[in-house]
Amino acid sequence: MSIEGKTVESNVHKISCPDCRLSELCLPYGLQQKEVQQLATIVKSKRPIHSNEYLYLQGDACLNLYAVKSGSFRSFITDDDGSEQTIGFYLPGELMGLDALQHGRSTCTIIALETSTVCELPLSRLNELCSQIPNLQHQMMRVLGKEITSDHDKIIMLSHRTAKEKIATFLLLLSRRYAGLGFSSTEFNLTMSRQDIANFLGLSNETVSRQFTELNKDGVITVKQRGIQINNMASLKGIVKPCLPDDQLSFIA
Amino acid sequence: MSIEGKTVESNVHKISCPDCRLSELCLPYGLQQKEVQQLATIVKSKRPIHSNEYLYLQGDACLNLYAVKSGSFRSFITDDDGSEQTIGFYLPGELMGLDALQHGRSTCTIIALETSTVCELPLSRLNELCSQIPNLQHQMMRVLGKEITSDHDKIIMLSHRTAKEKIATFLLLLSRRYAGLGFSSTEFNLTMSRQDIANFLGLSNETVSRQFTELNKDGVITVKQRGIQINNMASLKGIVKPCLPDDQLSFIA
DNA sequence: CGTACAATTGAGAATCCTCAAGAGCAGTGG
DNA sequence: CCACTGCTCTTGAGGATTCTCAATTGTACG
Fold first, then answer.
1. Does A138 sit within 8 Å of B127, measured CB to CB?
2. Considering A96, A120, A186, B249, which has the largest number of Cβ atoms within 10 A of its Cβ?
3. What is the CATH T-level fold of the domain B6-150, as seen in this structure?
4. Nearest nt (C1') to A225 (CA)?
């Protein structure tokens, strides 16, 4: 899934902040036009990153933040024995590299799930700008707060005990993120494999597959490979919170 | 468990940043003496909070950060049907309220697990100071980065499939945090109930209890109610990573 | 069209949850 | 000082869920 249509895909990485359709979701949010232009001067556009290419590796010195411009990414931590644990997925407008803020060294590896583009923001320049532009500092705090609450959502998702609850929560969180991007909240394509989802949720890929099949049979969603269509949003929310089927999830809402 | 001995307990909340033994773990880290004093001027000391008292409630307007000075806290999110999900536990030197940075409204409730003290930092004043003191802004970024990597540790813990792996990871993460505070990494008291741990890990409290009993029988740890003694650190790490029993965990290390 | 990879489906085994009862500990009041 | 109460924690047994192993189907790509 791509944020831009096929025809302009090749030029996405050349668009600068003032013209970027994601600016309202990204760091420029809340900034005045002049301030956005200032921010744009420190942003480096990068060449497109292809599927299965790495953005950076765990342990790399990482002195930049990366904003997803188009496409999607998966982040994971590798243990000493080589086993991977997926930490999360990144969609357009979201910032990667925040985990390196502590020691200037990345704690995870980030890999592209499809051909994607990013903006690179050198942390040193960004910190300088934050001192000069109070709005930018506020926005940085908001973005960091969003990352933290987003991690809390993941913790809640993983703490749910049954596989069906985890899958339902996973789909609802994705749905909300796509809606925030201006896409359909009920119809989207998964850019990650069943294996990725299983690893992320602490399940076997067979269980993930079976849960999709069951939700499909029950008519709650329609699954066609990686294409997902949510037919009954209330039912999906009801799976997570059986007591109040039609109510809004506090952390989904 | 308390960071201060019984005799000085009642005065902990009066100690200011320049004299606080936690300053190296908290916001003053990396600041010059003069800057620490500046920071101290915006810190409000609060009266001690007793066991089961709330620091703040989910949904409250929250325009402060809170640093744990002594004692410990539990944070949780309440669903519409009243069910709780524990998000994490806070020990001395750790910052609470970061989840409210996004919208100025807390997304979780925080409750004291024992008699505890906190420092209150108004966000507006803190932001001003950050603009004036580059070192403080850097430290804020480090602290936020730490919070994010700490959340990633939780995600890894929860993604582990078996109950024994979750419990082992939980104990290792706690051990590391106590060590960072200058306490023993092999002997400490849990300040939270089995129920709290179970809820946090997405397990039933019976399973938590059984896992403790098994680890006790195997001699890996000694459990006496809430008192924990780690007898074989390598074995505990081996449970999390069966392939390399004596190796260091990348995310624990 | 064939190969490689991803996804699905099935069956048996292991793990964990639920329900239920018993044990240990702290605080209260006689 | 001791019994009582309430709470937490532990232990047991049966049932449900999920994992593992294995085979099959489906899809993408050269």
1. yes
2. A96
3. Jelly Rolls (2.60.120)
4. C7
